[in-house]
Design brief:
Subunit structure (chain A): The complex is composed of two ATP-binding proteins (CysA), two transmembrane proteins (CysT and CysW) and a solute-binding protein (CysP).
Number of helices of chain A: 13
Strand content of chain A: under 5%
Radius of gyration of chain B: 23 Å
Oligomer: heterodimer
CATH topology of chain A: MetI-like fold
Distance between the termini of chain A: 35 Å
Order of helices and strands of chain B: HHHHHHHHHHHHH
Strand content of chain B: under 5%
Structural class of chain B: mainly alpha
Order of helices and strands of chain A: HHHHHHHHHHHHH
CATH superfamily of chain A: MetI-like
Largest sheet of chain A: none
Keywords (chain A): Membrane, Sulfate transport, Transmembrane, Transmembrane helix, Transport
Helix content of chain B: over 70%
Pfam families (chain A): BPD_transp_1 (PF00528)
CATH architecture of chain B: Orthogonal Bundle
GO molecular function (chain A): ABC-type sulfate transporter activity
Largest sheet of chain B: none
Number of strands of chain B: 0
Distance between the termini of chain B: 16 Å
Protein name (chain A): Sulfate ABC transporter permease subunit CysW
Number of helices of chain B: 13
């Protein structure tokens, strides 16, 4: 018997733990996916296409995609600014700022929705004033954008902060000392080094925007054909006993999740290669 | 490794910090401040009445109990998955590694209807469990299942990098001294993982407490029986009972701050410990 060097490396332990992990994962992650796709296609492709072509479903898809097109770029901008400030400069309160950026991750989406309602709602802090100016934010599409911005604001920032912190500022400092301007340094030195982490954060942010349910269900007012995103539409169909319609709508988001995982794996692979 | 100051300062400090602070204030802090303001406006007595009502207390009991059960499950299964992914090389490892993040990528509403269909009396799992007297859908067990599904990646992703970074020498030394697998695990590996393990569990627990989308489809949502705190908050809003909603939301927000504090303290603990080693 060869002497063992690492715990759990015996063939029996290895085989048992692997089998258990793979089996549990198949149940835990495979079953829900198979259920969604199976139920969506249970009535055949004809019904599937017909359900997707439903005007309310099409509108929900449109609203979900446009929301993501607005929210993701803004949070990329925020993530870049936050990471540049935190990892390339010294200032008091840096730890607190980093913690605040992470805050939305641990706040319940329902709490986020309630908070927005109390800011912009007709009984909220700013709502009455804005209404006098003829502005209504609650239960409109911009309310969906705002709530989505809140919920997904940490995604790009945290990936960039982690990576840029470990990379250090040496290369940027060299560029600046050689006479490069701030924007040139950022675009030619920093951006190429962080593009895969940026892509990774953007993919996660996009998945969360398109799937957000709790915060959006509070602030959107769930007006059919107006402020109903795809996840909200799933709930309406499900509660209307239109299970097939709900699963067809859900299958679009499930496919999005699979694409997200594939892109994420690609980004991780490129990140690993970049860091050797 | 953070960059050390070397006299030279990179440009863009004012702009980047300005953008960060303004955005954070506008998008994150202002709404949360409005929530606390409105909660304060309602007056302590009204607030307390909402927070301490019989129906609210029933939701706390249910939410905490199911979140604890879900976190216990995730502590064990998440540990197993992190272990296998970090320490073994096997075909399909990349696939398993990707699939572990499915709960983060899959919208909660989709997870909710899928789980409720699986555990409904006519579903794959429901048809097996129901004859045994195990009711999952429309029962507290279903809530725990939904919570466990949506929060398991927190445990795996907190543990995995730390497990990968463990120095093999310490284990080798322990084996040379005659320790067995279990002893090495319990005395050498587990203590080194403890801060990351606990912070992963804390994040998963916090996510479970705040979960809404996945739960409402499988819970049955019967007041006093299968109604979680997030749902009651939502119902209070629909009833236009704003002080009631404000109280519950403020209480949940306070809990989020506690989680953040605990996770930060655990991170500091780990940094200090690694600094010493």
């Amino acid at each position: 018997m060869t002497p063992r060097t690492r715990a759990g490396d015996g063939p029996a332990a290895r085989r048992a733990l692997l089998a258990l992990a793979v089996g549990l994962s198949a149940l835990l992650f495979g079953a829900p996916l198979a259920m969604v796709l199976g139920r969506a296609l249970a009535m055949g492709w004809g019904v599937y296409v017909e359900k997707i072509a439903d005007p309310f479903t099409l509108h929900a898809i449109w609203l979900t995609v446009t929301t993501s097109l607005i929210v993701v770029p803004i949070n990329i901008g925020f993530g870049l600014a936050a990471a540049w400030a935190i990892t390339r400069h010294q200032f008091p309160g840096k730890r607190l700022l980093t913690t605040l950026i992470e805050l939305p991750v641990s706040v319940s989406p329902i709490v986020a929705g309630v908070a927005y309602l109390f800011l912009y709602g007709s009984l909220g802090v700013l709502g009455p004033f804005l209404q006098d100016q003829g502005w209504r934010i609650m239960f409109t599409v911009p309310a969906i954008w705002l709530a989505s911005l809140f919920v997904t604001s940490p995604y790009v920032a945290r990936e960039l902060i982690t990576l840029m912190r470990s990379q250090g500022a040496d290369e940027e400092e060299a560029a600046v000392s050689l006479g490069a301007g701030g924007w040139t340094t950022f675009l030619r030195v920093t951006l190429p080094k962080i593009r895969w982490a940026l892509f990774y954060g953007a993919v996660l942010c996009n998945a969360r925007v398109m799937g957000e349910f709790g915060a959006v269900s509070v602030v959107s007012g769930k007006i059919r054909g107006k402020t109903e995103t795809l996840p909200l539409h799933i709930e309406v169909l499900f509660n209307d006993y239109n299970a097939t319609g709900a699963f067809v709508a859900a299958s679009i988001l499930a496919l999005l999740a699979l694409v997200t995982l594939a892109l994420k794996t690609l980004a991780e692979w490129r990140l690993e290669r970049a860091s050797g | 490794m953070s960059s050390r100051r070397r006299g030279r300062v990179l440009p863009g400090f004012g702009l980047s910090l300005g953008v960060t602070l303004s955005y954070l204030s506008l998008i994150v802090l202002a709404p949360l401040a409005a929530l606390l303001w409105k909660a304060g406006d309602a007056g302590l007595a009204t607030l307390w009445a909402g927070i301490s009502s019989e129906r609210a207390v029933a939701t706390y009991r249910l939410t905490l109990g199911t979140a604890l059960a879900a976190t216990a499950f995730n502590a064990v299964v998440g540990f197993l998955l992190a272990w296998v992914l970090a320490r073994y090389r096997f075909p399909g490892r990349r696939l398993l590694d990707a699939v572990v993040d499915l709960p983060f990528a899959l919208p909660t509403a989709v997870a909710g209807i899928a789980l409720s269909a699986i555990f409904a009396p006519t579903g794959w799992a429901g048809a097996l469990l129901e004859p045994l007297g195990l009711k999952v859908a429309y029962a507290p067990a279903g809530i725990a299942v939904a919570m466990a599904f949506t929060s398991i990646p927190f445990v795996v992703r907190s543990l995995q990098p730390v497990l990968e970074d463990l120095e093999p020498e310490v284990e080798e030394a322990a084996f040379t001294l005659g320790a067995g697998d279990l002893a090495v695990f319990a005395r050498v590996i587990f203590p080194a993982l403890l801060p990351a393990f606990l912070s992963g569990c804390a994040l998963a627990f916090s996510r479970a407490l705040g979960e809404f989308g996945a739960i409402i489809f499988i819970a049955g949502n019967i007041p006093m029986e299968t109604e979680v705190t997030t749902l009651l908050t939502y119902i209070r809003l629909e009833e236009f009972d704003y002080p009631g909603a404000a109280g519950l939301a403020a209480a949940m927000l306070a809990l989020s701050f506690v989680t953040l504090f605990v996770v930060n303290a655990l991170q500091l603990w780990r940094i200090r410990r690694e600094g010493r080693a």
